[in-house]
Amino acid sequence: MVTERSPKLDKERVVDTALRLLNEVGLDGLTLRTIARELDVKAPALYWHFKNKQALLDEMATEMYRRMVADARIPPDATWQERILAGHHALRAGLLGYRDGAKVFSGTRFTGIEHAAEMEANLRALLEAGFSFPQAVRATTTALLFTLGFVTEEQGVWPLPGERREGYDVEERAARMAGFPLAAAAGAEVFHSFEERFEEGLRLVIAGIEARYGVT
To answer: In the prediction, which pLDDT does 81 show?
Structure first.
């Protein structure tokens, strides 16, 4: 099908609309047809900018990162531990600003190189602390994977701040699992205090990196 390029559209407007709709309909409900309807254009018009939904998700994740970087600054003299803590707290905060933010971010390919500056600085800090290059890459990517996995699970309970998904009543869960007292009691830890648990988990990752590679 041949379509004329819509004068109303540019890539930035499509992405901005998609991110706004993401909070309303979630990742499963975010279709090119839904975005086109919001923009008052026919769906084929979007293919001038994105060949498929994955290409759009790649650009959405890149824009999410741009906005995160604009809101977060890491001091140049920060230690490698401070860099991991600050950077991933900022990443978590940014992802929580979008329904299914972690799912959108996971498995996507950045379309720009805005992330290169932070990545360069983080790897350099680890190399200067005594890590080998492979160790530095594995340490930083392990922290990233922890953050993405944690936020994915967190958003399964709280899709957006203040909006808890049905089915996560801890007392009701404990009653159903009364025959397994330890598993029942774990619900109070698993489904609450996400901020505190994220901080603790990230510090566990850092402690593991220190112990594994012998660098402090």
So the answer is: 97
pLDDT given at position 161: 86
DSSP symbol at 112: S
Q: Could you give phi then psi for residue 138, rounded to 5 degrees? A: -65, -40
Altogether, the residues listed in the chain come to a count of 216
Average pLDDT over residues 116-134: 95
pTM for this entry: 0.89
**Residue 93, C-beta contacts closer than 8 angstroms, at least 6 positions apart:** 68, 71
9 or 65: which leads in pLDDT: 65
**Mean per-residue pLDDT over the chain, rounded:** 91
Burial of 52 (0-12, 13-18, 19+ CB in 10 A): exposed
Asked if the model's pLDDT at residue 1 lies above 50, the reply is no
pLDDT over 50 at 2, yes or no: no
Give the H/E segment covering residue 146: helix 133-157
Measure the CA–CA gap between 189 and 170, rounded to whole angstroms.
10
DSSP secondary structure string for all residues of 97-135: TSTTHHHHHTT---SSSTHHHHHHHHHHHHHHHT--HHH
Rounded CA-CA distance 72/86 in Å is 8
Query: In angstroms, what CA-CA distances link 128 with 11, 139, 189, 216?
Result: 40, 14, 37, 11
Cβ–Cβ < 8 Å for 42, 3: yes
